[in-house]
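can u do me a favor
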């Protein structure tokens, strides 16, 4: 039986006590937005929002207005927003680049009398090689944790939603550790600039960005040691990582390796790192039942319907489906006897963005990590790992898994997935060409 003792990374984590009543799972995207707005309106001490981006859309405007209103109501409130430096200074892929989110931040700052800093955090000198993928909103003593960014589809502001996981944890120790990390790493670093004010060019701060990334590679959360959870109590540990072989990667592998009965894994882009595949293979061989929930290719946020103009980025969902087909083919013996269950999520034209792991009834991993090579090597990622030896959160976990599976269909054979020969002609030609020169392998490492 696997224990903490033979899972070295897990045994070294700092475990903070958590009461079952202080952990809340939300099952609806819109509920997360409403609870977030309510918390901002009621905040008295701090509001730290960290996300890949805050978008110039109705939902983004709603969040930004709420922040300014909270600051107006309570001038001493410490309000800060952190987004990725590169993502904020470009438009969406395939759209006009002239009016980016950073321009909107500056326009909003000019027309307000209050000062709310919005920081651009540059994890790498180019977006392709790493972004701020840190998750978590700290509002007073509560942490709102989701893989969602701040725009219409992630917050289900209008007609469509992008399905994610949404959790609230009330823990002063956890909130202090996460806010402390942002304070220590971001706000006074020479590579981090406010986007609501004029900024230097990326080219002019390349040296500072490289030094910043080196610093992040050695960073970690530093929770107070005043209250440490007993081994048999419900507990949470924040983990951060960037670069190959980091602490978060090792913790993820340990969570998979700890399973003796069941694993439930969610990933939006089927492109597991080799180390994850090896741990899944080992789990199957020791008899663990595994559920993997992945979005149907049409539920991928990069999917472009065939009737719309072709763009190269639209090949990604097909590339991920090819990965899934190969994996299902290799594991067909486990699929046939239902020890391995693969589920394809699809709900109309909504999209799927879930990530995370349940290991037996003992560990719950909340993370923005996509469980792909990019997350394991390039981006700044974090996670909240819950240890639940008594199974006190089993009811919430079961409800969340059932909610995830509500719009998922089982894959019983790899041939249920389209072969590349059935893909649209332009997609087929592109993927065939990439495969011949093995560029598809490089893309899998980058995307």
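np, heres the sequence
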């Amino acid at each position: 039986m696997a224990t903490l003792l033979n899972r070295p990374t897990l045994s070294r984590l700092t475990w903070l006590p958590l009461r079952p009543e202080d952990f809340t799972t939300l099952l609806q995207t819109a509920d997360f937005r409403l609870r977030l707005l309510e918390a901002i309106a009621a905040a008295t001490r701090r509001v730290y929002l960290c996300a890949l981006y805050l978008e110039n859309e109705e939902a983004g405007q709603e969040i930004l207005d709420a922040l300014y209103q909270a600051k107006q109501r309570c001038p001493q409130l410490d309000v800060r927003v952190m987004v990725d430096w590169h993502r904020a200074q470009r438009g969406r892929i395939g759209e006009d680049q002239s009016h980016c989110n950073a321009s909107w931040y500056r326009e909003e700052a000019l027309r307000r009398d209050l000062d709310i800093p919005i920081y651009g955090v540059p994890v790498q000198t180019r977006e392709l090689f790493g972004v701020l993928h840190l998750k978590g909103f700290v509002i007073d003593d509560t942490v709102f944790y989701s893989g969602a960014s701040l725009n219409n589809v992630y917050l289900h502001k209008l007609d469509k939603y992008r399905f994610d996981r949404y959790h609230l944890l009330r823990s002063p120790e956890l909130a202090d550790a996460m806010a402390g990390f942002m304070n220590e790493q971001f706000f006074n670093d020479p590579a981090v600039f406010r986007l609501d004010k004029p900024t230097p060019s990326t080219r002019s701060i390349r040296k500072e960005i490289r030094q910043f990334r080196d610093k992040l590679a050695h960073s970690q959360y530093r929770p107070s040691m005043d209250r440490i959870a007993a081994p048999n109590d419900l507990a949470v540990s924040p983990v951060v990582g960037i670069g190959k072989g980091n602490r978060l990667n090792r913790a993820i592998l340990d969570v998979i390796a700890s399973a003796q009965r069941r694993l439930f894994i969610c990933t939006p882009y089927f492109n597991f790192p080799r180390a994850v595949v090896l741990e899944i293979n080992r789990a199957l061989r020791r008899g663990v039942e595994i559920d993997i929930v992945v979005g149907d290719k049409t539920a991928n946020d990069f999917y472009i319907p065939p009737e719309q103009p072709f763009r190269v980025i639209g090949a990604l969902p097909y590339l991920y489906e090819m990965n899934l087909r190969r994996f299902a083919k290799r594991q067909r013996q486990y699929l046939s006897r239902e020890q391995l269950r693969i589920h394809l999520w699809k709900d109309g034209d909504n999209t799927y963005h879930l990530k995370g792991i349940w290991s037996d009834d003992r560990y719950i991993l909340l993370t923005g990590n996509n469980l792909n090579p990019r997350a394991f090597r390039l981006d700044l990622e974090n996670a909240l790992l819950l240890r639940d030896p008594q199974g006190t959160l089993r009811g919430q976990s079961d409800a969340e898994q059932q909610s995830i599976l509500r719009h998922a269909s089982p894959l019983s054979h790899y041939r249920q997935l389209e072969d590349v020969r059935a893909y649209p002609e332009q997609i087929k030609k592109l993927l065939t060409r990439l495969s011949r020169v093995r560029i598809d392998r490089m893309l899998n490492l980058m995307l």
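Residues 19-217 form a domain with the Endonuclease; Chain A fold (CATH 3.30.870.10). hope that helps!!
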